[in-house]
Amino acid sequence: MKKKSKSVVSYNKWGYIFLIPFVVVFIVFQLIPLISTVYYSFFTYYEDGLDVIGPKPNGINNYIALFSAKKEGEMNFMIGLKNTMIMWILGFIPQIILSLLFAAWFSDPSLRLKGQRFFKTVIYLPNLIMASAFSMLFFTLFSTVGPVNDILKSLGIIKESYDFMAHTGSVRGLVAFMNCLMWFGNTTILLLAGMMGIDPALFEAAEVDGATARQVFWRITMPILKPILIYVVITSLIGGLQMFDVPQILTNTKGSPNNTATTLIMFLNRHLYSKNYGMGGALSVILFFITAILSLVVFKFSGNSDKYGKK
Amino acid sequence: MQVNMVQEKQIGGVKARRTFSYVILTLTSIFCLIWFYILLINSTRSHGELTKGFTPIPSIHLFENLNNAFHSTQPILRGMLNSVIVAVCTAALSVYFSAMTAYAIHAYEFKLKKAIFTTILAIMMIPTQVTALGFLRLIDKMGMKNSFLPLIIPGIAAPIVFFYMKQYMESTLPMELLEAARIDGAGEIRIFNTIVMPLMVPAMAVQAIFSFVASWNNYFIPALVLEKEKKTLPILIAELRGADFLKFDMGVVYATISFSIFPVIVMYLILSKYIVGGLAAGSVKG
């Protein structure tokens, strides 16, 4: 395919010319900000009222301060990480189960499900909803005077209104539930694309041998799907680490009760809002490294998925 | 005889599994939609009716609630206009320049090609949040605070859109076509704009929808950049949550939420064929 004639060579400078917009915008709006974020993370630099303190170099003190335990109810990195992970896992487990189940059903020729397009359209819908409006909606629906409490009371399940926003379990549960609702459709379609790529001859052979649907799923589908599954888990984890809109608005920026629903990005947002550039920088750098490591893992596995994913 | 029994058993099993999957799918669909149904119903009810408890039957106050929402302290009409401006410009820049970047990598052979391609893939996963601090400092220094520009221009460098375009080009853009255009004496920019772009329309449409929705829903960065009359819808919604909620007319609260959610739902239902199909097409290699 690679014919190198003289004329082709002379056109090739256009490759660089067409790359200029991307490269310039990337350098100005992502690379320079990234470098300055790393730079500020080694300084004491914050605004206190109208006074600007710093910038004063302080080595890795911001990083130490980020991890050090503070008084009851105050935020630090480990609390944020714990909250974020708990809410991610609570949402991800039902999400992956539903997605695997639905993708298996949609791709199963012997089931011949009708209305697939309708179901796919419906389950993908929550993914496109404005997360802030969706959270506001859930807040009003689950408030003490909201319809969910009304319905539960009229069914006789509870006598008094339950304050969903005042309990750690219910706030985390709601955040996880919303995340699951918003993302399981997306995951289903990803897994479905992977399952559709599996050679149908494998299923036919299994059917001839009298394998049950369960055996086909665990012995054929799952092993072939492994690279895509790893991709799904890790990209979802990267997305989970960025969890912000839903808990921020559901708890009115407070992560209440008592910072048990404050995620890492909410913590970062507080530093950005109060203009504490040193601490915000340190937190950003740690998040950057975690994401970078996870991305590398994806990179490694998405190379493998080519073998099966592509026809 | 035995073969028959096995077959019958399998057919019976398939029927049971099919029924089971329909039941679960239907229940899940209801769980996906019920929130929007309640939202729609409650948007049609007055504050007085809403305080009496929930009923599944719509009332007649939708336009009254919407009208009150438009004239409340929250400038949601202006917010929607702002959101539309930002989202449309971001989507337009994003698809045009991503196609251009993809074309550079696809159609030319040059020394740094592989290095640049790998770099773009590597930065695909970096979340905007981790560079937000430096980004805010930078736009402060550039005098772009409280402007739409810092939200729109970064759309030019969108690795995920680029990647989708690149995949699409590999399957639809024959190099012979470009050679033929060159022999006819067309310049490279002209070739890109008049020959490549029309071929890319289906891919650009899908990615324009996703860019639009992503920008429309974006809250983190806009909330730190925009102030006063420049605020977009998600920021206004967040403020609604911050206000003393119980003093509000609940009909207006529901109408405001509806106003920010239903335009996207309507758009999605009209375009769903392309969205759901486009997702699967670009997703396998991710």
Describe this structure in words.
The complex is a heterodimer of chains A (311) and B (286). By secondary structure, chain A is mainly α. Chain A has helices at 6-11, 13-40, 61-67, 77-107, 116-128, 131-142, 147-154, 168-196, 200-208, 213-241, 245-250, 264-273, 277-309, and strands at 43-48, 51-57. Chain A has a two-stranded antiparallel ribbon with strand order 1-2. In chain A, helix 3 packs across helix 13 (277-309), helix 4 runs antiparallel to helix 10 and helix 5 packs across helix 8. The longest helix of chain A has 33 residues, at 277-309. Chain A is globular, with a radius of gyration of 25 Å. Chain A starts with 5 loop residues before the first helix and ends with a helix. Chain B has 286 residues and is mostly helical. Chain B folds into 2 domains: 2-63; 74-242, MetI-like fold (Orthogonal Bundle), CATH 1.10.3720.10. In chain B, 75% of the residues lie in helices and 0% in strands. Chain B has helices at 2-43, 47-51, 62-70, 76-107, 113-122, 132-141, 149-152, 159-172, 175-183, 188-217, 220-225, 233-242, 250-283. In chain B, helix 1 runs antiparallel to helix 13 (250-283) and helix 4 (76-107) packs across helix 8. The two termini of chain B are 49 Å apart. The chains are: A mainly alpha (311), B mainly alpha (286). At the A-B interface, helix 1, helix 2, helix 4, helix 5 and helix 6 of A face helix 1, helix 4, helix 5, helix 6 and helix 10 of B.
